């Protein structure tokens, strides 16, 4: 069973694809933009609680909230 880390959709053409690795989703988005000029979006799936907590503590772009 594969965990979906991200689902990419394109509102312009209705394309939808799921990925187990974020890197693959990012490459797919870039390729779709280059080939079509569309602006696909992604929705991230759930991550293990420890990963989510670390992300919350890091804040945006890895800057801890205490420094904002």
* SSE order, one letter for each helix or strand: EEHEH
Radius of gyration: 15 Å
The low-confidence runs, each spanning 5 or more residues with pLDDT under 50, are: 62-68
Helix proportion range: 25-40%
Number of strands: 3
**How are strands sequenced across the largest beta sheet?**
2-1-3
Number of domains: 1
Strand percentage lies at 15-25%
Structural notes for this entry:
A hairpin with a 6-residue loop joins strand 1 and strand 2 (16-19). By secondary structure, this protein is α+β, with helices and mostly antiparallel strands. It contains two helices and three strands. The chain has one domain (6-67). It has helices spanning 22-36, 49-58, and strands spanning 6-9, 16-19, 41-44. It has a three-stranded antiparallel β-sheet with strand order 2-1-3, with helices on one face. Mean pLDDT is 78; it is low at 62-68. It is elongated and about 35 Å long. Helices cover 37% and strands 18% of the residues.
Provide tags for this entry:
68 residues; alpha+beta; 3-stranded antiparallel beta sheet; 2 helices; 3 strands; elongated; disordered C terminus
Offer a quick outline of the entry.
With 68 residues, this protein is an alpha+beta fold.
Topology readout:
Layout: E1 6-9, E2 16-19, H1 22-36, E3 41-44, H2 49-58
Antiparallel strand pairs: 1-2, 1-3
């Amino acid at each position: 069973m594969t965990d979906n880390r991200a689902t990419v959709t394109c509102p312009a053409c209705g394309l939808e694809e799921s990925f187990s690795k974020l890197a693959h989703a990012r490459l797919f988005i870039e390729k779709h933009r280059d080939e079509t000029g569309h602006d696909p979006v992604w929705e991230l799936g759930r991550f293990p609680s420890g990963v989510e907590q670390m992300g919350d503590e890091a804040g945006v772009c890895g800057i801890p909230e205490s420094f904002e």
